[in-house]
Structures are given as structure tokens and as C-alpha cells.
Write a structure and sequence with these properties.
The complex is a heterotrimer of chains A (about 250), B (about 350) and C (about 700).
Chain A lengths: L2 H57 L10 H11 L3 E7 L5 E4 L11 H9 L4 E6 L2 E9 L5 E10 H53 L16 H28 L1
Antiparallel strand pairs in A: 1-2, 1-5, 3-4, 4-5
Helix pairs in contact in A: 1-2, 1-4
Chain B lengths: L1 H15 L11 E7 L5 H12 L4 E7 L7 H11 L3 E5 H9 L16 E6 L18 E5 L4 H11 L4 E6 L4 H17 L2 E6 L13 H10 L4 E4 L3 H18 L3 E3 L2 H5 L4 E4 L2 H16 L17 E5 H7 L12 E3 L3 H4 L1
Parallel strand pairs in B: 1-2, 1-3, 3-4, 4-5, 6-7, 6-8, 8-9, 9-10, 11-12
Antiparallel strand pairs in B: 10-11
Helix pairs in contact in B: 2-10, 7-8
Chain C lengths: L3 H62 L10 H11 L3 E8 L4 E6 L5 H6 L1 H4 L12 E3 L2 E9 L4 E10 L2 H51 L14 H33 L2 H20 L13 H5 L2 H12 L5 H8 L8 H30 L1 H21 L3 H28 L6 H30 L1 H20 L19 H8 L2 H32 L4 H29 L2 H18 L6 H29 L1 H7 L1 H56 L17
Antiparallel strand pairs in C: 1-2, 1-5, 3-4, 4-5
Helix pairs in contact in C: 1-5, 5-6, 5-14, 6-7, 9-13, 9-14, 9-15, 10-11, 11-12, 11-13, 11-22, 12-13, 12-15, 13-14, 14-15, 14-18, 17-18, 17-19, 17-20, 17-22, 18-20, 19-20, 19-22, 21-22
Classes of the chains: A alpha+beta (about 250), B alpha/beta (about 350), C mainly alpha (about 700).
Chain lengths: ~250, ~350, ~700
């Protein structure tokens, strides 16, 4: 009794591998996205402070391009949180107007930023491009015209380091779970398989004794009882008939 | 007819060769008529074009509250044929385009796009029949925040169950607003105590008795005194209504920037500068994006300024709620502190 | 008694045990994950709390700057509420004065927190405001404390409590996906049991049962088969041996009888009469010998199609929930066509190629051989998937998707042919059940897993997974038996001729069935499931995984209801009712969208759609045979069914097109309602036309026919 049992156990292990793998995968990515969200929300809190300042200035009639104190404010906010690498404010055409890094002013931001900003259904957006992770806020004026975008760049390695560590641990957990499965499932399966195998064994024993005319085995309650009885009956029947012929032949002698 | 043909031609040209606003060499010629001299609206109007690098050539004319000057302006418009006319306020606008159901259209400008600004209720004034599609050569910007938005702003300062209103019964505009208030009250669950100002023997409205009305409102448990965009009330707010309310300890909520300047506690108003920018945006849509004025909706700002007079707040012992410090604009403080 | 049911019982027991241990293992993973999440997420959330606290503090300082007294602030709780709504993991916020007395507080406070506020250690932040403090665990919360200090003097302390249970919530959100994984695992288990162990077992036990039945009926001809060397094989060999012995004995007796009759005199012959009579009786009632052993195919061969088919269909099904989203990303504006329609284009093209290719691919796969045809198809599709994953923009995407479609058509038709070749009228239905089963399971597993993949690893890598699945199917196809089998009775299949198309399409009886039932059902299916659901779900801010779950609901409905409905409608012989009812039910769902736009309603829509389709799908094609007897006699079943299938698949292609155009004009909700309305009214019209129209009942005489999904 081997091949069937091994096959069943193999199925269990494959399914277990799939399920555990998927669940580890899900947990890992959930971690990654939750962690990313927490960090992004933190960056956005800082961003909203700046948005408020811009909004207040626009409200009192200052032009978007002449917000003199904005750059200092951005630098101050950036220094307050080590996570933030830099901040830029760019206009709807993609040109940087203010930046914590003076070299970036007048440069064009990447297309990916523009797309992310335009595709977002709210005023907040985010994008991951190259080595930059960016959380952004669209700045709108009093009649809902987007006058510019605030982009906060923060450290990707900060996110990666956390993800790697957790990824490793979840991987180990998944291995442990698989180990549990490896031990438990064959044991549990054996119970079910044994009944099946017993049924088959009873059948085999019964069938192997079909011809020696031994007493019928007692009904075991297995699913095959009926079949065995039927087999015995048909074999017995034909044997009886052949025996009858034999007898008659002998009698004719 | 010719103008319309020209417009079609112009549209064809634009269609064939989409021109960028910025590269336009010939400045847009705008003829602007103000009501009482230059305001922040005109500044916002010009700032917008400057920031978008759109060259404009604006001819300013001031009515100076004198309707007799209007025919001269009309004549000048017919002679110089500007690209567009800018009109400030209801009287100027009506003087240029007339009500939509006016019998003699000859008196008015019908063939040059007109963009109005600072009209409190364009439908009421019969400037346009429908805000979404003006359906004539006129569009523009109105400046009063929707009544419901004002009520919500008021409630976010201090929740209320009942508001008092003083209004001029002879001003159609004010009567309508009182109706709107009642409707909003039904929806949001507050009562409206509306008191019309007295009329004198000549059936002219008078401010006499207003202080008593304010006291009555306080006694009737009004939580706020609402100041509608009422022309007569506006002239009397600073001298009579606000002092009476302060005396009675009744907070006042203003519907316009002028009323805020009279010392009301708080108000949801349109900044003139923003209104001017929005008006310029409409001009851009008509002249550069070639959308006929008849199809440009009449709108107001989507975000208003919530203003608070801190001195009034202190006197009434009603400090603004904490979240408001994030977005409100405080009057009566030195600007250094405000930043 | 002893039949496939027995085996299924065993399978279910096995699956139960496997599921139980998988759940256990998942529990282990979740436990560890929770531990890690707790350790890693809490400090990060504390950092966020500090930033949020700092902005709240700035607000308070701004208010006091304007002259408001720190103890007289108004609406502080409102600000706290705003913080709660933006940061659901924060449970409590409080501001105390410099002595630790609470001035403003909101949220659910743990018991000992007020004492904590007054502790000198906590208040010491006021003395050194620049030194950051670690969070302190009080009861169920981690409390972060920030000093509020104006340039003039210390004012008080701000405390934010983070709910320690927020990590549980995060993991709970994963749970929904884990449940999906479990359901998929269950189907995988059954599929794998069937594939790895079951195929042989099933055929072995089937063989055994047949043998028993044969013997009971008196048939003792030996099977003449090779027996596999496993448990069942041994069993069958025992029986074979017994039968052989009987045969030998019979032959021996018969020979002896013959000899003795030949040798003996008439007197002795008389004596032999009883024996001869008995022998004759046996000869008449029983069958012996070796002569009639037909070289029957092993049922195992049939079963072997299941694995490659499953893997291949799965590759395509994986993409269902996110393909529109991917197209959206690669969109290039095509002048004159709305982007909505462009998004539907690749799906439409796919369906169109499958529809157009079907009639010709059948004959082709016969010529080149089923196995080679499948192999070609799988290779073509694999290339298509790889290309899709690397697509540059919409235009080359269309090319890659066409390859996928071509491959899909090839594999589908060839494997259908494979089943046809290996079955006869007796077991054809069973063969197709197998075929459908593999597709169904793939439909359940594919979209849900695909959605999860797309959400987490992105669109392109997900197509990579599809490519890998398609490649796996190549490997499985290679292992299929090389020899081709053709039933001698079968005429080569042919594509319907144009003249047949025309005369059938102008035949009102045929078109009532096709135009009012089959096509609207397919339009609704592809329009809603493959186009609207994935796009709408994402447009209301939900995920591709949610779209996948929706499609899974549909598939599960099909799996659960189809066999049931098929039996019922066959038994009742009132198939028209099932078709009409199915259409009406599937159309009803869309109207729900008028009441609410929530995604929960969408579940109901998909549920009803699945239920409706499941009710009618089996009855539909049977009705063709039932009602179009005349046409079948005139043009042949191949032609009638060919045209029917073609039009049905055309409906598949029309669905996304129609849906996208509707979205342009009426928005998503409008499109849902309009498509559903179409199915609903077609259902009504069908019901009416059955009563009064060209269709009238004829005695059933349908032959089993290839299924369509």
C-alpha cells in the first residue's frame, strides 16, 4: 500500500505550499502597504501645513508665483522630519517654482509625477519613481483651478529596510508553518486514507480468495461489501453451473 | 450678424490652427466699467492676466454711481468696438446689457461679449435667465456664497437653533434671501426670525426701530443675527445694527466683505481679489478658448473666505473654534502676526 | 453504491483534512505576522502620532498667539475629532494643563490614563521640550506625550493614545484575501486530487465496477488489458485471473464435451444430453472467450486532458479582473474614439478572434492532431502573455492580446476535440463534464488570485505569472499521449457554409433562441463581468482584488448551480422556462444599482448574474437540438450548432463594446442598468415568443454537444 497514499500526501503538500505561500505573500504586501501608508500620512501631515500657508497667502490676494516666505517654511518643515529628503512646488506645466533644493528651481519635474497628480481623484497623490518616493498635494485656488502641486520626496531606503526585515521574518514564519503542515497533514491524512486502504484491502483479500472456495468474509461495513457479494455470487453461480456440467459429464460416463 | 459671422470665422481659424494664449502678440482689448472706482476686484482681474502672461489692454471707465454717464460709455463702446466688456455690479451690468426681457434691445450692447462681476443675484436682476447657460452675450461671476454654505459656516463657529434677520422689505433680493433662509432652516433644523425694517410715511425704508428689533431678537432666543446682502442694511450696519447687536450680546454673521468691514463677528465672503481672478478666467474662456459667452456658466467661487473679527470675538467672549484657526482669516490683527 | 460517488466521498474527506491543516498552517503564519506587525508598525505609528501632535500643537499655539486664553479654547474637541477621522488608529487625545489636569479630552481613554497624565515623569517633558520621549503603554493604548510650550511659558501637555488593536484590524483586512485563498485552495485540492491520484483511481474503480456489473450480467470475457501496478491494478488482476480460470474451465469442459460427443455412440450421446443441455444453457446465457475484446481506450487518457486545460485556462482567467485596469494605464488617445471604448477594445478583440477562429480551428486541429494543435496554441498564448507583460502601449498590446486569443481558441477547440475523440455517445456527457469542470475551477481560482496579484505586485508581473501558467500548460500538454484517436463513425467536422449562415440567420425559430436568449446572455456576461465590474470597482476607489472576488462569486454560482440546473431542466423538459427565468434573473441584478452604488450591491448584481446564467446555460444549447430539429435535418447538427456557437461568441465580443459605449453616454451605473435591462427584456420577449411565437415544442432528440462557456 503505497502509491495512492503518497499521491494524496503530495496533493496536501502542494496545496499547503500554495496556501501558505499566498498568505505569506499577502501578509508581506499588507505590511509593506500599511507601513508605506503610515509613513506617507506622516509626510502628508507636514504637507498640509504648507498647503494651509499657501492657501492663506492666495486668499489675501498674493500671486502663486510670489509667495516669498514659502521656501523658508519648506526648509524649516523638512528639517523637522529627517524622513523628508526634499520638497518641491511646481506649476501645472511641471516647472518647479519653489524647492528646498535651490538647484531644482526652474527644472521640469518628471512625467510620472505629473501623471500621478493628474490621475488622482482627490487632492492627494503619491508616486514611486527611481529612487524617490513622493507624496503630493494638489494646490487649488478659490475657484478650484489647480495652481500648482506640492511634492514631498522621502527616503526609499527607509521603507526598503523595514520591508526587507519583515519580509525575512514572514518568510521564516511561512517555512515554520509549512513544517507544521509537513508533519501534521500526513498524520491526519493517514486516518482518512487508512479507511480507504482498508476498504481496498478487504476487497483485495476478498477477491484473492474468490476462487479457493473459502467462506465469505464477514461484512465489514465497507463500501465494497455489495460489490464483493455480487462478485462472489456471479463467480459462485458460474462455478456452480460449470460444476453441474462436470457432474453431468461424469454421470454420463 | 456680421459679428457672429466674424466669430464663426475666428472659431474656424482657431480650429484650423490652435493658438497658444502665451504667443498671442496682439493684446486683448477690454473695456471695463466700474461703479465706484477701482477695487480689489480689478486688481485680481489684472493679476490673473499677468500671472498667465496674457497681454491685455484694459480701458477703465468709472460710473461713479451716476447713471447719466452710461449712454456716453455705450456710445464709446460702439465706436471703439473692444473685444470684451467688463462690468462691475448690478447697475452697471444692467446699464450695458439691459434685462433679458427688455423690449428695446437697440439701447444695449448685444454683439460684444460682456463679463460681469460682483452681481449679487444675476437671475433676480434679470441679467440671465439661467446660471448654467446664460444664452445671451453675457456671463460673469456672482459673489454671494450659497445660503446653505453660509449657514454651515455659521454653525461651525457656534451651533444654533434659531437665527434673526433684519431686511429691507422693499428690496426684492432680500425678500428672496429670507425665503432661502427659511428653506435652509427646514432642511437643517433651525428657525428663522425675520424682521422687516420699518417704512416711513413715504413708503421709504428707515432704520428707526432697528435697535429695538435687535433686542427683541435676542429676547426671542435668536443665536445669531444674520446680515443679508441688503443694500440699505449695508449702509446702516456700522452705525446702527452692529452696535445694537454688540450691546445685546448677539453675534453677527455677514454675507459680504463690506458687511464684514462694518465689524460683524464672522462671515463667509468672497475675497474681491479672488472674484476678480475668477472673472478674468471667464474672459480667458471666451476670448482665448473661444467658448461663446452664452455657453459659459455664471458661477461663484468654490471656496470662500471665512473671516473673523477677533476684536468682536473678544468683546462677545466668543473665541473662534480651534479648527477654524487652520483656515479662517482674522481681521483686526496686525498682518505680521497673521502670517 | 460503488461508483464515482464513493470516490468523491473520499475526496471530500481528504479535502476536509487538507483544508483543516492548511487553516492551521495559515493560523501559524498569521500569528507570526501579527507579532512582527505589532513590533514594526507600532513605533512607526508613534512617529506619525508625534507629527500629527505637532501640527495640533501648532494650531493651539496659533490660537493662543491670537490672544485666546489656553484654558478658554473653544472647539478643541472638534479638532480632535478631525484627527480621529483622518487617523482611525488613534483612540484618545487629551490636553492637560501644566499640573496634569485634563482640560480637553476626546476618545476612549484607558483606565489609569488620568493618573498617568499627572505623573511628574510625564510632566517633565515641559522642562525639556526638545527631548523626545518614548511612548508609554497604558492599558490598551500606547500614549505619546508632547509638551505645549509657547515662547513665553509652558502651557500644558498634549497626549495621543494609539489603539494597540489597530494591528489586529490591519491583519483583519488581509483576512478577506486569505479566505479567498482558502476557497481557491479547496478547488485546487479537488482538482489536484483528481489529477494526481484520482484519474487512475477513478478509472480503476470504474473499471472494477464495470467488471462486477459485467459478471453479474453473465459476461465473462476477459478484459485483455494491461493493469497498472497499484492497488486497484492488483485488484483487477485478481479478478482477471478468476475470469481466466473460469474461461479455461469453460473451454476445457466444452472441449471435453465436444470430444466425447464425437467419440461416443448414440447411446452414450443420449447420456451426455443433460450435460450438453446444461452447457448450452451456459453458452446462451453467459459470454466467454477472447473474441470480442474491443480495444477500448483507457479512461485515464481522457482525464489527462484536465491538467493542461486547467493550467492554460487559469492563465487567461487570472487576467480577467485587472486587464481593463492595465489597458487604462497603457491608453493612448485614439482620435474620435472615447477612451472608455478603447479600454474595451482588447477584450472585444479577444472575444472576436475566439469567435471567428472557432469554426476553422476545429478542422485545423483535426488535420494537425489534437495534441499538436494544443501545443501550438499554448506556445502562441505564452508568447502573447509575455508580450502583454512587456507591452509598450495600446497598439502592441492589441497584437499580444490577439496572440493570446488565437492560442486560447486553438487550445479550447483542440481539447474539446480531444474529448470528442475519446468518447462515444455513452460517455460523452461525462467527458464534457470533465472538460467543463477544469474550466470552471479555473474560473473560480483565476480572477480572484489575479486581482490579489495585480494589487500587490503590479500589472506587468501578474501577466508574467499568466505566462508562467501558460508555459506550465505546455509542459503538461507535451506529456499527453501522442497517438491520435478518431472514432470510425465520425465524419470530419467542417465550418458552416455561408449559405447555411444566411438561411439560419433568417430562420425565425433559430434566431428567437439565438438572438433573444443566447446572445443577450453573453453580452450581459462579458459586458458586466469582464468590462464593467473591474473598471467600476476601481473607479469607486476599491481594489483589483475586490474585482477578483466579485468574479469569483460569479464563478462559484456557476459551479454550484449549473450541474443542479442542468439535471433539473433535463428532467422537467421545460428548458424554455429555465432559459427565460435565467435571463430575467440575471437581468434583475442591474436594476439594484439604481438604489445604491455601494460595492455590496455589486456583489448582489454578480450573484444574480451568476445564478441566472447558471440556470439557463445548460438548457440553452439543449433547446437548439430540441427546437431546431428540422434545421438540423436539413443542414446537419454541425452547421446548426456551429452557427449557434458563432453567434453566441459574437455576443461575447459585443458585450464589452456595448458596455463601453453605454458608459460613455450614461456612465457606469447607466451601463449596468442598460445591459441588465437588455437581458431582462430579451428574457421577457423570449418567454412571450415561446407561447405565441415560432417556437413550438417538439419531441426532444438532442445529441450531446460541445459545451460553451
Amino acid at each position: 500500500m503505497g502509491t495512492i497514499r503518497i499521491r494524496f500526501i503530495l496533493v496536501a503538500l502542494i496545496v499547503g505550499f500554495f496556501a501558505i505561500g499566498m498568505s505569506a505573500f499577502l501578509n508581506f504586501f499588507k505590511y509593506k502597504s500599511t507601513y508605506g501608508t503610515i509613513v506617507r500620512e506622516r509626510v502628508l501631515v507636514v504637507g498640509r501645513g504648507i498647503e494651509n500657508a499657501v492657501q492663506a497667502s492666495l486668499n489675501v490676494g498674493l500671486q502663486f508665483s510670489e509667495l516669498g516666505t514659502l521656501q523658508q517654511l519648506m526648509v524649516r518643515e523638512m528639517r523637522a522630519d529627517k524622513l523628508i529628503v526634499g520638497m518641491d512646488i511646481f506649476d501645472p506645466a511641471g516647472q518647479v517654482i519653489y524647492s528646498t533644493d535651490p538647484e531644482r528651481v526652474k527644472r521640469e519635474v518628471s512625467n510620472g509625477w505629473m501623471q500621478a497628480a493628474q490621475r488622482s481623484k482627490t487632492t492627494e497623490w503619491n508616486v514611486e519613481e527611481g529612487g524617490d518616493v513622493v507624496a503630493g498635494i494638489s494646490l487649488k485656488n478659490n475657484f478650484d483651478l489647480t495652481v500648482g502641486f506640492l511634492a514631498m520626496r522621502y527616503s526609499k531606503s527607509y521603507l526598503d529596510v523595514a520591508a526587507q526585515g519583515v519580509g525575512r521574518e514572514i518568510f521564516i514564519a511561512a517555512l515554520a508553518a509549512f513544517a507544521v503542515l509537513f508533519v501534521v497533514t500526513p498524520l491526519a491524512l493517514v486516518f482518512v486514507i487508512r479507511r480507504f486502504e482498508r476498504d481496498l484491502q478487504v476487497l483485495e483479500t476478498a477477491v484473492s480468495h474468490l476462487e479457493d472456495g473459502s467462506v465469505p468474509p464477514p461484512a465489514t461495513g465497507s463500501a465494497f461489501d455489495g460489490a464483493i457479494a455480487s462478485l462472489r455470487e456471479s463467480l459462485g453461480g458460474i462455478k456452480g453451473e460449470l460444476d453441474d456440467v462436470r457432474r453431468k459429464l461424469d454421470a454420463a460416463r | 450678424m456680421i459679428a457672429r459671422l466674424l466669430l464663426v470665422l475666428a472659431a474656424l481659424v482657431v480650429f484650423a490652427q490652435p493658438s497658444e494664449a502665451q504667443v498671442r502678440s496682439k493684446p486683448l482689448r477690454i473695456y471695463a466699467i466700474t461703479f465706484r472706482g477701482m477695487t480689489d476686484v480689478e486688481k485680481g482681474f489684472q493679476d490673473y492676466f499677468a500671472s498667465r502672461k496674457i497681454p491685455v489692454e484694459i480701458t477703465f471707465r468709472d460710473l461713479n454711481r451716476d447713471a447719466s454717464r452710461m449712454p456716453g460709455f455705450i456710445e464709446e463702446i460702439r465706436r471703439t468696438r473692444p473685444d470684451l466688456i467688463y462690468t462691475w455690479g448690478t447697475s452697471v451690468t444692467l446699464g450695458v446689457v439691459g434685462p433679458y426681457d427688455a423690449p428695446d434691445r437697440e439701447k444695449y450692447i448685444n454683439d460684444i461679449p460682456v463679463v460681469f462681476t460682483l452681481v449679487a443675484s444675476p437671475v433676480m436682476a434679470k441679467i440671465v435667465a439661467d446660471l448654467k447657460t446664460p444664452d445671451r452675450n453675457v456671463t460673469g461671476v456672482f459673489h454671494v456664497a450659497p445660503t446653505e454654505a453660509q449657514m454651515r459656516a455659521m454653525a461651525s463657529y457656534r451651533p444654533f437653533k434659531s437665527i434673526g434677520v433684519l431686511y429691507t422689505p422693499t428690496e426684492q433680493n432680500s425678500v428672496v434671501i429670507v425665503d432661502e433662509l427659511r428653506a435652509a432652516g427646514k432642511k437643517m433644523g433651525f428657525t428663522v426670525l425675520a424682521k422687516p425694517l420699518h417704512l416711513d410715511a413715504q413708503k421709504k425704508v428707515t432704520i428707526d426701530g432697528a435697535p429695538q428689533m435687535v433686542r427683541d431678537l435676542k429676547n426671542q432666543k435668536a443665536d445669531w443675527l444674520y446680515l443679508p446682502p441688503d443694500s440699505f442694511l449695508g449702509t446702516q450696519a456700522k452705525a446702527v445694527v452692529i452696535p445694537a447687536a454688540m450691546e445685546a450680546g448677539l453675534p453677527t454673521f455677514a454675507s459680504t466683505e463690506q458687511l464684514m468691514e462694518t465689524g460683524a463677528l464672522s462671515g463667509l465672503v468672497s475675497r474681491y481679489h479672488s472674484i476678480g481672478q475668477f472673472t478674468a478666467y471667464k474672459v480667458e474662456q471666451i476670448l482665448l478658448n473661444r467658448i461663446p459667452a452664452a455657453k459659459v456658466p455664471v458661477e461663484t467661487l468654490t471656496r470662500f473666505s471665512l473671516q473673523v473679527n477677533l476684536a468682536t470675538a473678544e468683546a462677545l467672549k466668543l473665541p473662534p473654534p480651534l479648527p477654524m484657526y487652520n483656515y479662517a482669516e482674522f481681521l483686526g490683527v496686525d498682518p505680521a502676526k497673521a502670517q | 453504491m460503488l461508483d464515482k460517488n464513493y470516490l468523491w466521498r473520499i475526496y471530500w474527506q481528504l479535502a476536509g483534512v487538507i483544508m483543516a491543516s492548511v487553516v492551521l498552517a495559515l493560523g501559524v503564519v498569521s500569528y507570526f505576522s501579527h507579532h512582527v506587525f505589532d513590533r514594526e508598525l507600532v513605533p512607526e505609528t508613534e512617529k506619525k502620532a508625534i507629527t500629527v501632535g505637532a501640527s495640533l500643537r501648532a494650531l493651539v499655539l496659533k490660537a493662543t498667539d491670537y490672544g485666546t486664553d489656553f484654558t478658554q479654547l473653544y472647539g478643541v474637541e472638534q479638532s480632535f475629532d478631525e484627527v480621529f477621522s483622518e487617523n482611525p488608529e488613534f483612540a484618545s487625545i487629551a490636553i492637560t494643563d501644566t499640573a496634569g489636569k485634563v482640560l480637553y479630552a476626546r476618545g476612549k481613554e484607558p483606565e489609569a490614563i488620568r493618573q498617568h497624565f499627572a505623573k511628574p515623569d510625564v510632566l517633565s517633558v515641559l522642562a525639556t521640550p526638545d527631548v523626545p520621549r518614548d511612548a508609554v503603554r497604558i492599558g490598551t493604548q500606547y500614549v505619546v506625550s508632547l509638551p505645549i510650550v509657547s515662547p513665553a511659558k509652558a502651557l500644558g501637555v498634549l497626549h495621543i493614545g494609539i489603539d494597540s488593536a489597530f494591528v489586529d484590524k490591519v491583519l483583519l483586512e488581509v483576512l478577506l484575501d486569505v479566505v479567498v485563498v482558502l476557497v481557491v485552495s479547496l478547488f485546487f485540492t479537488l482538482e489536484l486530487l483528481n489529477f494526481m491520484a484520482g484519474a487512475r483511481l477513478a478509472s480503476g474503480l470504474g473499471e472494477f465496477t464495470k467488471q462486477v456489473e459485467r459478471m453479474r450480467g453473465g459476461d465473462f470475457t476477459p478484459s485483455g488489458r494491461m493493469r497498472v501496478n497499484d492497488e486497484i491494478g492488483r485488484l483487477l488482476r485478481w479478478i482477471d485471473a478468476a475470469i481466466d480460470h473460469i474461461n479455461v474451465r469453460y473451454e476445457a469442459l466444452a472441449g471435453e464435451l465436444r470430444n466425447r460427443i464425437a467419440e461416443s455412440n448414440p447411446d452414450a450421446r443420449d447420456k451426455l444430453k443433460p450435460a450438453a443441455k446444461a452447457m448450452e444453457a451456459i453458452r446462451v446465457s453467459k459470454k466467454f472467450g477472447t473474441g470480442e475484446v474491443a480495444p477500448k481506450t483507457e479512461e485515464t487518457d481522457l482525464n489527462r486532458i484536465r491538467a493542461p486545460l486547467f493550467a492554460f485556462i487559469l492563465a487567461e482567467e487570472l487576467t480577467r479582473s485587472y486587464l481593463p485596469g492595465y489597458v487604462n494605464q497603457l491608453l493612448v488617445p485614439i482620435p474620435g474614439i472615447s477612451p472608455q471604448v478603447v479600454i474595451g477594445l482588447p477584450i472585444m478583440l479577444f472575444m472576436l478572434i475566439v469567435a471567428l477562429g472557432q469554426p476553422y480551428l476545429g478542422g485545423w486541429s483535426e488535420r494537425v492532431g489534437r495534441r499538436s494543435a494544443m501545443l501550438t496554441g499554448a506556445v502562441v498564448a505564452t508568447i502573447g502573455f509575455i508580450g502583454t507583460a512587456l507591452a509598450y502601449n495600446l497598439y502592441d498590446l492589441l497584437l499580444w492580446r490577439s496572440l493570446c486569443a488565437l492560442g486560447y481558441g486553438m487550445v479550447f477547440v483542440a481539447s474539446q476535440g480531444y474529448v470528442l475523440d475519446r468518447t462515444d455517445t455513452g460517455n460523452r456527457a461525462q467527458g464534457f463534464a470533465l472538460f467543463i469542470g477544469a474550466i470552471m475551477v479555473a474560473t473560480v481560482c483565476g480572477p480572484s488570485i489575479g486581482g490579489i496579484l495585480a494589487d500587490n505586485i503590479g500589472f506587468r508581473p501578474s501577466f508574467g505569472v499568466s505566462a508562467a501558467m501558460a508555459f506550465l500548460s505546455i509542459v503538461a500538454i507535451v506529456r499527453l499521449p501522442k497517438e491520435e484517436l478518431r472514432g470510425p463513425s465520425m465524419a470530419p467536422t467542417r465550418a458552416p457554409k455561408l449559405s447555411e449562415f444566411i438561411s439560419l440567420m433568417t430562420n425565425s425559430r433559430f434566431m428567437t433562441l439565438t438572438g433573444l436568449a443566447a446572445m443577450p446572455a453573453k453580452i450581459l456576461l462579458t459586458g458586466v463581468c469582464f468590462y464593467l465590474v473591474p473598471l467600476y470597482i476601481v473607479s469607486i476607489g476599491n481594489t483589483q482584488a475586490m474585482a477578483g472576488r466579485m468574479l469569483m462569486v460569479y464563478a462559484i454560482m456557476m459551479v454550484l448551480v449549473v450541474p443542479f440546473a442542468a439535471t433539473l431542466s433535463d428532467a422537467s423538459l421545460k428548458r424554455e422556462r429555465y432559459v427565460a427565468l435565467g435571463l430575467i434573473i440575471s437581468g434583475l441584478g442591474g436594476f439594484l444599482m439604481l438604489f445604491s452604488e455601494s460595492f455590496l450591491v455589486l456583489f448582489a448584481v454578480v450573484f444574480l448574474l451568476g445564478l441566472g446564467q447558471a440556470l439557463s446555460i445548460a438548457a440553452q444549447s439543449a433547446l437548439v437540438g430540441e427546437h431546431c430539429q428540422e434545421e438540423i435535418q436539413k443542414y446537419g447538427a454541425d452547421a446548426v450548432y456551429g452557427v449557434y456557437r458563432f453567434l453566441e461568441r459574437l455576443g461575447n465580443a459585443l458585450g464589452p463594446l456595448l458596455a463601453s459605449v453605454l458608459v460613455v453616454f450614461w456612465g457606469y451605473i447607466g451601463a449596468f442598468v442598460a445591459l441588465s435591462g437588455l437581458a431582462f427584456f430579451c428574457g421577457l420577449a423570449f418567454a412571450i415568443s415561446m407561447r405565441f411565437g415560432p417556437i413550438h415544442h417538439q419531441p426532444p432528440g438532442a445529441t450531446p454537444e460541445a459545451p460553451n462557456l
